Amino acid sequence: GAGVSQSPSNKVTEKGKDVELRCDPISGHTALYWYRQSLGQGLEFLIYFQGNSAPDKSGLPSDRFSAERTGGSVSTLTIQRTQQEDSAVYLCASSSKGPQETQYFGPGTRLLVL
Amino acid sequence: AQSVTQLGSHVSVSEGALVLLRCNYSSSVPPYLFWYVQYPNQGLQLLLKYTSAATLVKGINGFEAEFKKSETSFHLTKPSAHMSDAAEYFCAVSDSRTGNQFYFGTGTSLTVIP
Q1: Which helix (H) or strand (E) holds A44?
Q2: Among candidates A33, A44, A17, which has minimal Cα distance to A112?
Q3: Which pLDDT band, with edges at 50, 70 and 90, does B102 fall under?
Q4: Higher pLDDT, A113 or A99
Q5: Torsion of CA B46, B74, B30, A56, to 10 degrees
Q6: Sequence-ordered alpha helix ranges (H) in chain B
Q7: Rg over CA atoms, chain B
Q8: Chain B contact for A49, CB < 8 A?
Protein backbone atom coordinates (compact mmCIF):
# COMPACT_ATOMS: atom_id res chain seq x y z
CA GLY A 1 0.00 0.00 0.00
CA ALA A 2 0.92 3.66 -0.08
CA GLY A 3 1.71 3.86 3.61
CA VAL A 4 1.50 2.04 6.90
CA SER A 5 -2.07 1.52 8.01
CA GLN A 6 -3.37 0.56 11.42
CA SER A 7 -6.74 -0.56 12.65
CA PRO A 8 -8.79 0.27 14.50
CA SER A 9 -7.96 3.95 14.74
CA ASN A 10 -9.66 4.12 18.13
CA LYS A 11 -10.55 1.40 20.59
CA VAL A 12 -12.41 1.71 23.86
CA THR A 13 -12.53 -1.39 26.00
CA GLU A 14 -13.34 -2.46 29.52
CA LYS A 15 -10.68 -3.46 31.99
CA GLY A 16 -10.00 -7.18 31.75
CA LYS A 17 -10.98 -7.57 28.10
CA ASP A 18 -8.58 -8.65 25.38
CA VAL A 19 -7.80 -6.39 22.40
CA GLU A 20 -6.14 -6.93 19.05
CA LEU A 21 -4.41 -4.16 17.16
CA ARG A 22 -3.51 -4.58 13.52
CA CYS A 23 -0.72 -3.15 11.41
CA ASP A 24 -0.36 -3.31 7.64
CA PRO A 25 3.18 -2.26 6.69
CA ILE A 26 4.30 -0.79 3.41
CA SER A 27 4.41 -3.51 0.80
CA GLY A 28 7.86 -5.07 0.57
CA HIS A 29 9.11 -3.76 3.89
CA THR A 30 10.74 -6.58 5.82
CA ALA A 31 11.15 -4.77 9.13
CA LEU A 32 8.19 -3.90 11.35
CA TYR A 33 8.14 -2.12 14.73
CA TRP A 34 5.56 -1.60 17.46
CA TYR A 35 5.74 1.35 19.89
CA ARG A 36 3.59 2.73 22.65
CA GLN A 37 3.16 6.47 23.18
CA SER A 38 1.61 7.48 26.46
CA LEU A 39 0.54 11.00 27.37
CA GLY A 40 3.60 12.97 28.40
CA GLN A 41 5.92 10.08 27.60
CA GLY A 42 8.18 9.39 24.68
CA LEU A 43 7.85 6.45 22.39
CA GLU A 44 8.36 3.18 24.18
CA PHE A 45 9.78 0.46 21.95
CA LEU A 46 7.82 -2.77 22.22
CA ILE A 47 9.02 -5.20 19.58
CA TYR A 48 10.79 -5.48 16.23
CA PHE A 49 10.13 -8.04 13.50
CA GLN A 50 12.51 -8.93 10.71
CA GLY A 51 10.33 -10.96 8.42
CA ASN A 52 8.16 -13.09 10.67
CA SER A 53 10.75 -13.33 13.43
CA ALA A 54 11.11 -11.17 16.52
CA PRO A 55 14.70 -11.61 17.74
CA ASP A 56 14.09 -9.79 21.01
CA LYS A 57 10.80 -9.62 22.86
CA SER A 58 12.15 -8.05 26.03
CA GLY A 59 10.55 -4.70 25.22
CA LEU A 60 7.05 -6.04 25.74
CA PRO A 61 5.80 -4.59 29.06
CA SER A 62 4.38 -7.80 30.46
CA ASP A 63 3.31 -11.31 29.52
CA ARG A 64 -0.14 -9.90 28.77
CA PHE A 65 1.36 -8.44 25.60
CA SER A 66 2.12 -10.57 22.56
CA ALA A 67 2.73 -9.90 18.90
CA GLU A 68 2.94 -11.91 15.77
CA ARG A 69 3.59 -11.35 12.12
CA THR A 70 2.50 -13.65 9.36
CA GLY A 71 3.56 -13.88 5.73
CA GLY A 72 6.15 -11.20 6.33
CA SER A 73 3.40 -8.61 6.17
CA VAL A 74 0.52 -7.98 8.56
CA SER A 75 1.25 -7.86 12.27
CA THR A 76 -1.07 -8.14 15.24
CA LEU A 77 -0.40 -6.83 18.74
CA THR A 78 -2.57 -8.51 21.34
CA ILE A 79 -3.12 -7.26 24.85
CA GLN A 80 -4.82 -9.71 27.17
CA ARG A 81 -6.72 -8.76 30.31
CA THR A 82 -6.29 -5.06 29.62
CA GLN A 83 -5.52 -2.69 32.46
CA GLN A 84 -6.10 1.06 32.67
CA GLU A 85 -2.35 1.70 32.42
CA ASP A 86 -2.43 0.12 28.96
CA SER A 87 -4.27 3.20 27.68
CA ALA A 88 -2.01 4.83 25.10
CA VAL A 89 -1.48 5.32 21.41
CA TYR A 90 0.05 2.24 19.83
CA LEU A 91 2.18 3.05 16.81
CA CYS A 92 3.42 0.73 14.13
CA ALA A 93 6.27 1.48 11.74
CA SER A 94 7.96 -0.37 8.91
CA SER A 95 11.26 -0.02 7.10
CA SER A 96 12.60 -1.56 3.95
CA LYS A 97 15.35 -3.65 5.51
CA GLY A 98 16.29 -3.00 9.09
CA PRO A 99 17.09 -0.47 11.79
CA GLN A 100 19.45 1.62 9.68
CA GLU A 101 16.65 2.46 7.29
CA THR A 102 13.99 5.12 7.62
CA GLN A 103 10.96 4.00 9.56
CA TYR A 104 7.58 4.96 8.18
CA PHE A 105 4.96 5.33 10.85
CA GLY A 106 1.29 4.55 10.77
CA PRO A 107 -1.34 6.87 12.25
CA GLY A 108 -1.61 4.79 15.41
CA THR A 109 -4.39 3.13 17.37
CA ARG A 110 -5.64 5.10 20.33
CA LEU A 111 -6.57 2.63 23.07
CA LEU A 112 -8.65 3.62 26.07
CA VAL A 113 -9.22 1.11 28.83
CA LEU A 114 -12.07 2.02 31.14
CA ALA B 1 22.20 -1.42 25.86
CA GLN B 2 21.24 1.90 24.40
CA SER B 3 19.41 4.93 25.74
CA VAL B 4 18.66 8.47 24.70
CA THR B 5 18.36 11.65 26.75
CA GLN B 6 16.77 14.78 25.39
CA LEU B 7 17.52 17.81 27.51
CA GLY B 8 14.58 20.16 27.70
CA SER B 9 11.08 18.87 27.19
CA HIS B 10 10.01 22.31 25.97
CA VAL B 11 12.04 24.79 23.94
CA SER B 12 10.85 28.19 22.76
CA VAL B 13 12.63 30.28 20.14
CA SER B 14 11.77 33.44 18.27
CA GLU B 15 11.07 33.24 14.57
CA GLY B 16 14.39 33.62 12.75
CA ALA B 17 16.47 32.54 15.73
CA LEU B 18 18.73 29.51 15.99
CA VAL B 19 17.09 26.23 16.89
CA LEU B 20 19.12 23.87 19.07
CA LEU B 21 17.59 20.66 20.38
CA ARG B 22 19.87 18.51 22.47
CA CYS B 23 20.27 14.77 22.36
CA ASN B 24 22.76 12.61 24.19
CA TYR B 25 22.93 8.89 23.75
CA SER B 26 24.41 5.91 25.48
CA SER B 27 25.50 2.93 23.47
CA SER B 28 28.02 0.17 23.99
CA VAL B 29 28.38 -0.33 20.24
CA PRO B 30 28.46 2.08 17.30
CA PRO B 31 24.99 3.53 17.12
CA TYR B 32 22.57 4.50 14.44
CA LEU B 33 21.04 7.87 15.39
CA PHE B 34 17.87 9.49 14.16
CA TRP B 35 15.75 12.58 14.58
CA TYR B 36 12.03 12.25 13.96
CA VAL B 37 9.44 15.02 13.97
CA GLN B 38 5.76 14.89 14.80
CA TYR B 39 3.74 17.86 13.58
CA PRO B 40 0.41 18.55 15.28
CA ASN B 41 -2.16 15.92 14.37
CA GLN B 42 0.26 14.15 12.06
CA GLY B 43 2.31 10.98 12.25
CA LEU B 44 6.01 10.74 12.91
CA GLN B 45 8.38 11.35 10.03
CA LEU B 46 12.13 11.16 9.65
CA LEU B 47 14.12 14.40 9.72
CA LEU B 48 17.58 12.91 9.36
CA LYS B 49 19.75 9.98 10.35
CA TYR B 50 23.34 9.03 11.06
CA THR B 51 24.48 5.55 10.05
CA SER B 52 28.28 5.80 10.26
CA ALA B 53 28.91 7.89 7.17
CA ALA B 54 29.50 11.65 7.41
CA THR B 55 29.29 12.96 10.95
CA LEU B 56 27.41 16.10 9.86
CA VAL B 57 24.06 15.03 8.59
CA LYS B 58 21.66 17.24 6.68
CA GLY B 59 17.97 16.59 6.77
CA ILE B 60 14.75 18.02 5.49
CA ASN B 61 13.47 21.55 6.08
CA GLY B 62 16.94 22.98 6.73
CA PHE B 63 17.72 20.88 9.81
CA GLU B 64 21.06 19.27 10.43
CA ALA B 65 22.75 17.31 13.20
CA GLU B 66 26.31 16.46 14.05
CA PHE B 67 27.43 13.16 15.51
CA LYS B 68 30.09 13.78 18.17
CA LYS B 69 31.38 10.51 19.51
CA SER B 70 33.56 12.14 22.18
CA GLU B 71 30.52 13.92 23.60
CA THR B 72 28.05 11.11 22.83
CA SER B 73 25.80 13.77 21.35
CA PHE B 74 23.65 14.21 18.28
CA HIS B 75 22.18 17.70 18.67
CA LEU B 76 19.71 19.02 16.11
CA THR B 77 20.11 22.53 14.76
CA LYS B 78 18.53 24.91 12.30
CA PRO B 79 19.98 28.38 11.68
CA SER B 80 16.68 30.21 11.42
CA ALA B 81 13.42 29.04 12.95
CA HIS B 82 10.20 29.21 11.00
CA MET B 83 6.69 29.15 12.39
CA SER B 84 6.09 25.85 10.61
CA ASP B 85 8.87 24.22 12.67
CA ALA B 86 6.62 24.10 15.73
CA ALA B 87 6.34 20.40 16.50
CA GLU B 88 7.49 17.58 18.77
CA TYR B 89 10.99 16.33 18.02
CA PHE B 90 12.28 12.91 19.00
CA CYS B 91 15.84 11.64 19.03
CA ALA B 92 16.32 7.90 18.65
CA VAL B 93 19.15 5.37 18.79
CA SER B 94 19.53 1.87 17.48
CA ASP B 95 22.24 -0.71 17.90
CA SER B 96 24.05 -0.96 14.58
CA ARG B 97 25.18 -4.47 15.36
CA THR B 98 21.89 -6.23 16.06
CA GLY B 99 19.24 -3.56 15.65
CA ASN B 100 16.95 -5.62 17.80
CA GLN B 101 15.82 -2.67 19.89
CA PHE B 102 15.13 0.93 19.14
CA TYR B 103 15.08 3.68 21.74
CA PHE B 104 13.38 7.05 21.46
CA GLY B 105 13.90 9.99 23.76
CA THR B 106 10.99 11.55 25.60
CA GLY B 107 10.73 14.30 23.02
CA THR B 108 11.19 18.05 22.89
CA SER B 109 8.27 20.30 22.08
CA LEU B 110 9.42 23.27 20.00
CA THR B 111 7.44 26.50 20.11
CA VAL B 112 8.25 29.28 17.66
CA ILE B 113 7.32 32.77 18.80
CA PRO B 114 6.42 35.28 16.09
Answers
A1: strand A43-50
A2: A17
A3: confident
A4: A113
A5: -50
A6: none
A7: 14
A8: no
Handedness of CA A37, A53, A95, A76 (dihedral sign): negative
Beta-sheet pairing, A104-105 with B56-58: unpaired
Mutate to test the interface with B, among A5, A47, A105, A109 (most CBs of B within 10 A): A105
- The C-alpha atoms of residue A33 and residue A55 are separated, in whole angstroms, by 12
- Residues of chain A positioned with their CB less than 8 A from the CB of B46: 102-103
Cβ-in-10-Å burial (0-12, 13-18, 19+) of B110 comes to buried
**Residue B76 — pLDDT band, cuts 50, 70, 90?**
very high
Neighbours of A18 (CB within 10 A): 11
Q: Rounded to whole angstroms, how far apart are CA atoms A39 and A31?
A: 26
Question: In this complex, which of B43, B51, B107 lies closest to A100 when CB atoms are compared?
Answer: B51
Answer whether A66 touches B (CB < 8 Å).
no
Residue A16 has φ and ψ, to the nearest 5°, of 100, -15
pLDDT in tens, A5-45: 999 999 999 999 999 999 999 999 999 999 999 876 778 88
